[in-house]
Amino acid sequence: MPEMPEVEIIRRGLAGKLVDCQIIDADILLPRLIKWPGIDDFSASVVGRTIKQVNRQGKYLLFVLDNGNNLVFHLRMTGRLCWVAAGAEQDAYRRIVFALDSGDSLVYADTRTLGTVYVLPQEDLWRISGLASLGPEPLSEAFTAEYLSLVLAKKRTKIKSFLLNQKYIGGLGNIYADEALAVAGIHPLRTAETLLPDEVKRLHAAVNQVIAEGIADGGTTFRDYRNGEGKAGHHQERLLVYGRDKSPASTAAM
DNA sequence: CAATAGCCCTGGTGGC
DNA sequence: TGCCACCAGGGCTATT
């Protein structure tokens, strides 16, 4: 399940391959993944366009095209976005294949097909509600201990649920939320507003730390995650808690 | 506001 | 070996 570090690794890998590449065709094998606009408008907005930037917001990947449109992906559980060299074998679960002028391809593959794809002009990105409501992300200037303290103080939800809510912090999922809590020494079932000032500081530092380490390790691969070149990450070797036991503390439904 | 259930989905797994 | 219930779990919606 790609979280912010995994998506960032994908972004970096793809940026190096795709900037200034032209998309010459879009083979849409599973149209229902495209949530906006309709399939015809989608193709028309993308084909013939050149990719100018590869950006990331939270767990969203955004390809800025030379017509001002953004090609947006959310990988959800099992989405993979890979650059595939001309003639090389493509993922068996490919759902959308973008042919590039170089002869290579950008392949969106997704086993469980829960991912979402959009094309929208910059000024219409608000239509993607999850993107519009995304909170500050770890390692950003906006994500300060003060911010965290302020928001936590008003929330009676459990701290792990809080961390998973993208409105409050953009980019954490199960793995890094568990890890951050473990590093900070805070039980996942604690009520958010009961965290003491010192715990809030530890949590803030821990969130930044685990995200930075995840990125440094090339992401975490349990089963499905691959980077933009189809390779696994290795942060799973350094995890403290996630996937290591089945006690209520680490697996309670949040 | 918070918690919960249901939905979207497919493949891997474990039980029998 | 084959069948099947169950689980994975991000994010959204509807309900309590």
Question: What's the gist of this structure?
Answer:
This protein folds into 2 domains: 4-132, N-terminal domain of MutM-like DNA repair proteins (Alpha-Beta Barrel); 145-253, Orthogonal Bundle (Helicase, Ruva Protein, domain 3), CATH 1.10.8.50.
Task: Please name the defining characteristics of this protein.
4-stranded antiparallel β-sheet, N-terminal domain of MutM-like DNA repair proteins, about 250 residues, Helicase, Ruva Protein, domain 3, 5-stranded mixed β-sheet, alpha+beta, 2 domains, disordered C terminus, 8 helices, 9 strands, DNA-binding
List the helices and strands and how they pair.
Elements: H1 4-18, E1 23-28, E2 34-36, H2 39-46, E3 51-57, E4 60-65, E5 69-74, E6 79-84, E7 94-100, E8 105-110, E9 116-121, H3 129-132, H4 145-152, H5 159-164, H6 174-184, H7 197-216, H8 248-251
Parallel strand pairs: 2-9
Antiparallel strand pairs: 1-7, 3-4, 4-5, 5-9, 6-8, 7-8
The chain binds a DNA duplex (16 and 16 nucleotides) through residues 1, 3, 59, 74-78, 93, 110-114, 116, 129-130, 155-158, 161, 164, 166, 173-174, 222-223, 253.
